[in-house]
Design goal:
The chain has about 600 residues and is mainly β. A hairpin with a 2-residue loop joins strand 27 and strand 28. The longest helix has 26 residues. It is elongated. The termini are far apart. The relative contact order is 0.08.
Length: about 600
């Protein structure tokens, strides 16, 4: 103890008194910090080597997406790709991919077979960390034009370190933009109540019709309440308001009727739509592939007057030699007694040297009205026929609800009696007019003017010279004689089908111009000519048909000949149908 506690001089310290020294807090903190770090490092080291770290899952690392066209045409096929990715560090189980397609989208093919009847679910099973996959879906849209549809996609799965199910979802919007056809409606913007009015719906194909499957399509026309349909061309089914259609090329549909709206209704609307269904079952209301509207204002008058030319209340066309048949329909649509002062039909037609193209000396008029001619200018001459009370007793007492129909018929001149190529214009304008008296006041009502386009006088004569070859066969020398004198023609084609056990020697075909192609497999013969000016008024093509075997039940050697040509003056495409060639048949006894 002396060695430990003794002073340097050998004495012992006074043990009753002690001097306390304070320790530095900084030093203490440093010691604690060093000790803590050592302890934490030991724990981390032990955890790293003794217990391996578990993977951490985040739903953000799993994705599902769809890609493809976002603006589509109705009825056309498109392909879409679905991609799913597991970018997490854990595996996924019970993976189910679901694709909910838009209403009206019909799946045609999928790159991977679906696991359900709807062809919209795929059981993927397991996705390893970093694994991805894809599939393609092809289909066609049957949906209303100008509407937005959406694909909805879902990926359901269970991560390996969880017991609950997760889901990733997405959507892909699609706009239906392209119509199958362009629709337009022509007709009066104002229609007299009680008067017959006609409308024309024009359908022009968009050129994509060939992409459509065989599905039912109709052109439906909805009219305002109180519209009474009087006729249509082509004819609608009785009591119906639609035509079955195949929207190819350009077609026109006409219908006419009488408006009888309620007293407080001032206007209505004609609405035309192309409607189609997914299949022949026509389930549901169908889808609208094209649409057009025409507003109509109703006019209430005492007298309703309409003009019908060649069965139509719209513009049309004629050819030289044909007749113009006009009907002026007059109806007392009011409640008072009327008196017709006079009525007339006016025809403004092409003229040359003050002579009209109309053959007025062959006019057919049962009421024998008053005919008057007037030269309007160098190329147009007016002819009018007027009727008064001396021509019809119905004009004197025209009771409410009474109808009067005035008819006339006048043909156009034709070659060779007239050099119709001298006429420089090709439009006929027609109108009707009625002057009537009510309460001693005279009023005038005029019809909507109509125009007739005078197309070329193209005609086809089919001839057949038959001879016996002596070996039981029959030789037909067929001639197609095409004539034209009014306007130059372009893009002329003639075609027909040939029937039976026949042979055509192509080297023996005589053709004055253009070219002839005979398809042996389809048994179709086609003659095309680029141009036929009026200076060449006749073209004749001849070809032989050898009938090897006579079938007693065969009645036709060829089909009717179809002629297509463009009138270069009017721009109209003409379609003419020539005769077929018939075979002499013998009576076949019944079995």
């Amino acid at each position: 103890l002396a060695e430990i506690y003794g002073n340097t001089d050998g004495t012992m310290p006074d043990m009753k008194q002690f001097e306390t020294r304070k320790r530095s807090p900084i030093l203490r903190a440093a010691v604690v910090f060093i000790f803590s770090c050592a302890l934490l490092g030991g724990v981390v080291w032990a955890g790293f080597f003794a217990w391996p770290p578990q993977a951490v899952f985040s739903g953000d690392d799993v994705s599902v997406s769809l890609s493809g066209e976002s603006r589509v045409n109705a009825g056309q096929e498109y392909q879409y790709a679905v991609r799913y990715v597991n970018a997490s560090s854990v595996s996924l189980s019970n993976v189910l991919l679901s694709v909910r397609v838009p209403d009206g989208f019909v799946i045609t093919t999928t790159s991977v077979s679906s696991t359900d009847e709807t062809r919209q679910e795929w059981r993927i099973g397991t996705l390893a960390p970093g694994e991805e996959g894809s599939l393609e879906i092809a289909g066609k849209f049957f949906a209303d034009v100008s509407t937005e549809q959406s694909f909805r996609i879902f990926l359901n799965y269970i991560p390996s370190n969880f017991s609950s199910e997760f889901q990733e979802a997405g959507s892909f919007p699609v706009m239906i933009t392209g119509a199958l056809a362009a629709l337009s409606i022509e007709g009066p913007e104002e229609a007299a109540v009680g008067s017959e009015t006609e409308f024309t719906v024009t359908l022009e194909s968009s050129g994509r019709v060939e992409t459509l499957p065989d599905i039912p399509l109709v052109l439906r026309v909805d009219s305002p309440s109180g519209f009474l349909l009087k006729g249509s061309n082509p004819a609608m089914p009785t009591g119906g308001n639609e035509w079955k259609i195949s929207p190819t090329g350009t077609r026109q549909f006409r219908f006419r009727g009488i408006f009888s709206p309620a007293d407080d209704v001032e206007a209505g609307e004609i609405h035309a739509r192309i409607i189609g269904w997914k299949d022949q079952g026509r389930q549901g209301d169908g889808f609208i592939y094209a649409s057009a509207k025409l507003p109509v204002k109703f006019l209430r008058t005492d007298m309703a007057v309409s003009l019908v030319v060649n069965g139509s209340m719209s513009d049309g066309s004629v050819t030289p030699g044909e007749s113009v048949h006009a009907t002026l329909a007059i109806r007392n649509a009011g409640d008072a007694q009327l008196q017709i002062v006079r009525s007339r039909i006016i025809i403004d037609a092409p003229s040359f040297h003050n002579q009209s193209i109309m053959q007025w000396n062959e006019l057919s008029d049962p009421l024998d009205g008053i005919v008057k001619g007037e030269q309007l200018d160098d190329t147009t001459r007016r002819g009018s026929v007027t009727w008064t009370a001396q021509h019809s007793a119905a004009f004197r007492e025209f009771a409410p609800g009474t109808d009067v129909f005035i008819e006339l018929q006048v043909p156009l001149k034709q070659a060779p009696q007239t050099d119709i190529s001298s006429f420089q214009t090709h439009l006929i304008h027609m109108a009707g007019e009625v002057v009537y008296r009510i309460n001693r006041e005279e009023k005038t009502v005029s019809t909507k003017p109509l125009s007739l386009l005078i197309n070329s006088d193209t005609a086809l004569d089919v001839r057949d010279e038959v001879s016996d070859t002596g070996d039981g066969k029959e030789l037909h020398r067929v001639s197609w004689v095409l004539s034209n004198t009014f306007h130059d023609l372009a893009n002329v084609s003639l075609e027909a089908d040939v029937y039976g056990d026949i042979a055509i020697a192509e080297n023996d075909i005589l053709v004055p111009g253009g070219k002839v192609v005979y398809d042996r497999e389809k048994k179709k013969i086609v003659w095309t000519v680029d141009a036929m000016p009026t200076s060449v008024d006749v073209l004749a093509m001849q070809f032989p048909i050898l009938l090897n075997t006579k079938n007693p039940t065969q009645t036709n050697l060829t089909s009717k000949v179809t002629v297509h040509a463009t009138d270069t003056a009017t721009g109209e495409e003409m379609v003419i149908v020539g005769d077929e060639i018939l075979l002499e048949t013998k009576n076949v006894p019944s079995p």
